[in-house]
């Protein structure tokens, strides 16, 4: 009873919208094939690979004969891929993290004689991509570091992207590979809102704090430059934190007000004091007081000041314990804050119960 549909598989009752000329060819995903007898939609079509027929499973009408089976004739098992016996005829998709489109030809030596083996070796040698080899090595190292910290994949991916940009710029040629990788991981952590301190990165990578810091600064400059070249946008520097008017989010995660939140909770400070500390930090940022200071010491100074304002003072030593900046640095930053206290202690902060007379005059 089965009857063979006379034409190509696309023929039986197609629902094709009118074609437009002058446009680049694209597969029309609106075309669906349905059975011309039962017109069931969604169709219940089944490909019988053994006989090469395309059959409507509802009525048994053969819609197409001699269908080409495009699936592979082998199955892959992960532990099968030993000794280069992967039978697939295509490689991976292009990897944006590597150079080039990776569309080079490979010569298989399986099944061939000595000649093909030699050809394979010669071609392999000629195609040896040194640049990609270095990149792969670095990506491996970055992946291992991020795994060690149980950081999400997004961090290791962005570290790899940063590394690639750095590699392309060639300014880190003379730098040690370890330092560059440490800098990339550090920056990637910040960009993904899981900041790690220099000390933590030092412990993990055994690269000195100074070296990481220097690499990080250079990396950030490079990324900003690249960004600017791309969009011709400008950058604003305020409060010691580089804030991009648009896309670049490099250091914004080391925002002093965010740090204030974290440190205040570590110090067991109450909600009101925390709010005042974060307000001070954001005011400090917008007025440019403490510009050029590290976000850590700025945040520490804001907490120091907020504690006094709200009658919940913490000593510089206590703050040092969480912010990991020396108490003398905190006091120095506080001194600058104190000098500009009229600018940063807003009416809003006073309304929250801040008492300016509580402030200790810096030495
Ligand atoms: Zn049917």
From TrEMBL:
Instruction: Report the Gene3D superfamilies cross-referenced here.
Output: 1.10.472.170, Cyclin-like
Superkingdom, natural source = Eukaryota
Q: Which InterPro entries match?
A: Cyclin-like_dom, Cyclin-like_sf, TFIIB, TFIIB_cyclin, Znf_TFIIB
> What keywords are assigned to this protein?
Metal-binding, Repeat, Transcription, Transcription regulation, Zinc, Zinc-finger
Q: Where is this region: Disordered?
A: 1-23, 75-96
Protein name as annotated: Transcription initiation factor IIB
- SMART domains per UniProt: CYCLIN
């Amino acid at each position: 009873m089965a009857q063979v549909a006379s034409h190509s598989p696309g023929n039986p009752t197609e629902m094709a919208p009118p074609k437009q000329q002058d446009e680049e060819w694209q597969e029309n995903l609106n075309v669906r094939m349905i059975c011309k007898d039962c017109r069931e939609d969604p169709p219940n079509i089944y490909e019988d690979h053994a006989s090469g027929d395309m059959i409507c499973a509802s009525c048994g009408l053969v819609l197409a004969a001699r269908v080409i089976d495009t699936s592979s004739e082998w199955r892959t098992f992960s532990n099968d891929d030993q000794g280069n016996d992967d039978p697939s005829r295509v490689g991976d998709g292009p990897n944006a993290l590597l150079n080039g489109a990776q569309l080079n030809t490979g010569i298989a030596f399986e099944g061939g004689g000595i000649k093909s083996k030699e050809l394979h070796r010669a071609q392999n040698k000629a195609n040896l991509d040194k640049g990609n080899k270095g990149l792969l090595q670095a990506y491996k190292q970055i992946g291992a570091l991020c795994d060690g910290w149980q950081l999400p994949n997004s961090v290791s991916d962005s570290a790899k992207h940063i590394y690639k940009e750095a590699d392309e710029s060639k300014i880190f040629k003379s730098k040690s590979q370890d330092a560059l990788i440490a800098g990339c991981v550090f920056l990637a952590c910040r960009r993904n809102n899981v900041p790690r301190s220099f000390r933590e990165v030092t412990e993990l990578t055994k690269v000195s704090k100074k070296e990481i810091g220097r690499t990080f600064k250079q990396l950030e400059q490079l990324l900003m430059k690249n960004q600017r070249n791309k969009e011709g946008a400008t950058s604003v520097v305020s409060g010691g934190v580089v804030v991009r008017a648009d896309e670049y989010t490099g250091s914004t995660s080391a925002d002093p007000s965010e740090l204030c939140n974290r440190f205040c909770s570590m110090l067991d400070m109450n909600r009101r004091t925390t709010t005042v500390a974060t307000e001070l930090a954001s005011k400090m940022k917008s007025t440019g007081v403490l510009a050029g200071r590290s976000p850590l010491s700025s945040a520490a100074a804001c907490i120091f000041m907020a504690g006094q304002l709200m009658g919940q003072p913490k000593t510089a030593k206590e703050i040092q314990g969480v912010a990991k900046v020396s108490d003398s640095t905190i006091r120095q930053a506080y001194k600058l804050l104190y000098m500009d206290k009229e600018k940063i202690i807003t009416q809003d902060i006073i309304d929250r119960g801040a008492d300016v007379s509580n402030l200790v005059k810096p030495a």
